[in-house]
Amino acid sequence: MASDQNFVDFVIEQIQKSGEITAKKMFGEYGIYADGKIFGLICDNKLFIKPTVAGRAFIGDVVEAAPYEGAKPSFLIEEQIEDSDWLSELVRISLSELPAPKPKKKK
Q: Which of 34, 52, 72, 84 could connect to 97 by a Cys-Cys bridge, CB 3.0–4.6 Å?
């Protein structure tokens, strides 16, 4: 099941305090980026954040799940998705540990 655009828009609105947030459609689902760095996915109307040590400490009782079959587990964010301040802070914390995007090769 593909994610609904209304859900994607809601998530982007919730985390807009984390930087310049964009969503790119990928295989019927969405990659979520802040300032050009991918940090999460939206699959089946669920938000998944890439796992980091600091993110795990911030969340506390982490729920991990694969966003799609064959994917590595990510942090599944469910109840806290309504808390914009909490979610924005999680994104900022996670971004600090994630690597910078690789420069694109010129064709």
A: 52
